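A reminder before we start the practical. When you read a complex entry, don't treat the lines as separate problems. The point of joint prediction is that each chain is placed relative to the others, so the output describes one connected object in space. Small molecules and nucleic acid strands, if listed, are placed in the same frame. In the example below there are two entries. Take a minute to note the order of the lines before looking further.
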Amino acid sequence: MTDTTSDILLLSIGVIILLVGLTLFGEFMRGRYPVGESNQVVETFIQRVNSWWAIVILTSSAALLGELALLLLFAFASFAALREFLTFSYKRQADHLSLALGFFVILPLQYLFIGLGWTGLFAVFIPVYAFLLLPIVSALRGDSNRFLIRVAETQWGLMICIFCISHIPALMTFEMGDGRSVLLILFFVMVVQFGDLIEYYAGRKFGVRKIAPHLSPKTIRGMIAGVLGATVIGALLSWITPYGIVGAAMMAALASLTGMFGSLVFAAIKRDKGVKDWSHLIPGQGGFLDQLDSVIFAAPVFYHVTMLVWK
Amino acid sequence: MSLPRRLAARFVGHALTFIARFIIAARADWRGIEPVPRQRVYFANHVSNADMPMVWAVLPPALRRQTRPVAAADYWLKNRLRAFAGRDVFGAVLIDRRPEARVEDPMEKILEALDEGASLIIFPEGNRNMTDDPLLPFRSGLYNMGKARPEVDLVPTWIANLNEIMPKGEIIPLPLICTVTFGAPLHVEKDEDKDAFLQRAAAALVSLSDPTFDEIT
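Here is the predicted structure of the whole assembly.
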């Protein structure tokens, strides 16, 4: 067994012990209600923990299987997120071909570029070439009705769901030797998601002033608690990163903070489209976009700072 | 039906359900009723050829087994593959749409299926809706069924988004999310005449098309 594999196993076992604790806690809370009765908060909590089981098992087995499995996992996450985004975006029949190209050509190509290590093309493919090509395909059908809104919403979907998400597996192109860059992905996803969890529960308990009252229940205290929590977790996990203790703490704080503002942006989009959740595919959490919104926003920033500062 | 044919039909049925659930991400929204084994006629809007498999696939397996779509014989008997799909996979009640040529009365076949205990999926518009209106005027079949078998629930069933997934004339389907919404059941009232009932049924179906209803809670 290599060092990388044993580190992945160690992290997975740590998270699994945590999940076992949360599952037992959920069952204990459920047991306090008489047979035939149930409490909504407890049931939602158990559903969420169950979804976390699925996410953790999928991610850690992909990490153990290696680069190709991780690439496929994130390509599927992109696909699921794009499906949710484009279900609610404004479109007409004239856009049918450009949307199909987004799903079946642009998405696979973007992940192929990462697999081949073509980081130059990976960085410009969607912001430049897809950006120019897809409006041409839509324009050729000759329908000018709300044209700018249509192409803008489509491009936004591609940027968020393909371009941004693909920056997570792109961390594997960072040269660390012994395939250790896979651990960077786990570091990034863990600090952002734990920060979100702390923000959610601390905000519910101690939050006073809301950061954007018309958009989201996020509070200033909740966010501070979340970022601080992510910072501590980042420092504790510094042994799997090339950043050192202080560097890992700062990278975690940066990722967590961008992520939280990212979910604020998504809250604004959902409110604009009149939906509460993007879909119902993950029980208790809504859709893939609801689960990933913070990770999506933080990924490109985390990737570029890693490449610029630590190379 | 021979055993290999029956097994093949089961296999294709499972494959279709898998595709509908995970590739098209079809899901059921039971808004007005629960998915329980009562005898029902699900009446749905009709915009594409994927409508019937979609409703069929989102039903829970126990309900799906006793639910038979009512479909046009001229379409489903055109070749052997379609006949296999229509008769063996979906167990469709095939009716003849040409009044001048047919030898069997469609309503008789439908009532026969109901008396055997089956639930049905029907498209009361008769044809695919190619207009910008949400629904075409309903044919009288739904009213006749409700009148003849008043104990059966008539369930409005709205299929959202399929015209965006596969608009007419396109070849590649888009993998967008498709929601099938089931509303509160209707029955023909005692002195209700045909037009009044069909209007009420159409209104109940269209009212399910509002997507924000269940999303903002």
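Discuss with your neighbour: The longest helix of chain A spans residues 244-273. What might explain this?
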